[in-house]
Amino acid sequence: MRICLLTADPGHPLLAAVTGLLTPEHQVETLDPGAEGPGPDLSSLADVYLLKARTPRALALAALLEEHGAPVLNSAAATARCQDRVEMAAVARADGLPFAGTRFAATLGELAAEGGPAGPLVIKSRFSRRRDLVTRADSAVQLRELAADWPEEPVVVQEFTVNSGWDHKLWVVDGQLFAALRRSELAPDGRGPTLPLPVGELPASWTDAALRVGEVFGLEVYGVDLLDAGGGAPLIVDINAFPGIRGQAGAPEALAALVLRTAVSGRTGSAAERKVPQVSEK
C-alpha cells in the first residue's frame, strides 16, 4: 500500500511510530501542504492520506484529493468543522452532546466594550490553530488587556466551570479510547504534566459522549477535552481532529490498523461530506 502523510512534521512521535509499523511492507511518503512547488500527481494517488495538518491550504489539498477519489483521514470537511469553534459548538449542541455553552464575539475589543463580566470567562480564538488564544478573564481590566494584545482576534466565550484544575483528555482512534489527565492551562500554575488515566476508570457517560463525538462530526481520529461539571456529569469544552496522542500505548497500532483498513476499502465521503466549510487564515 502507498500511504501519504499530509503534514509538515512527519517526525511527530505518533506519525513516526505509525510509519515504523507500516514500513517496510508498505510505502509511506510525506506531502507538506505548505510547501511551494507543484501539487500532487492526481494521476497517481496514494491508497490513503493522513491529514495531520489544519491550515486552509491543507484542507483545500485534502478536499482536492477527495474529489479525485482518494480516502483521507480525517476528511477535509470533518477537520474543518473542528477548526471553527462557533460551528463546533453549534453542531455538538444541536445533536445533544454535553458541550459548554459558547457565544461568539467578532473581536476582543467588542467583548471588552461590554464591560466587566458577571463571572469568570474562558476566552478562546474562534479558529483553532497553533498558538491560538485560550485564557481566562475575571474582570473588565483583564478583558481590556487582552483586547490590547489581540485587537482583531475573533473569539468565542464560555462561562468558566469550577473544576479540579485538571483536564480530562480523551482520544479516539477508530472507536478505540485512550485517556489522560493534564493540568489545565487555565489553572493558577499553568499547564502541567500529563498523567495516565485508565479508560476503565471513566464514567460510562464520559466514554459514551466521546464516542458520540466521532459519529456527530464524522471523525475517526480525534480528541475530546472534558471537565467534570459536577456530580460526574461530563462537559465537553473542545474537540480536536487528529491530535498528537502522545505516550498512549496502543494508539500507533490502532492508527496503523485503521490506515490499512481504509486503504483496502478505499472509502470516500459523499459529495456533501466533501464540501469544506471556509476556515479563516487567522
TrEMBL record:
Task: Give any GO molecular function from the UniProt entry.
Answer: ribosomal S6-glutamic acid ligase activity
GO terms (BP aspect): SOS response
Q: Which GO terms describe its cellular component?
A: cytoplasm
Keywords of this protein's UniProt record, alphabetized?
Ligase
Quick check: keyword Transferase in the entry? no
Domain (ATP-grasp fold RimK-type) spans 120-247
User: Would you indicate the residue range of the signal peptide?
Assistant: none
In its UniProt entry, what is this protein called?
A: Alpha-L-glutamate ligase
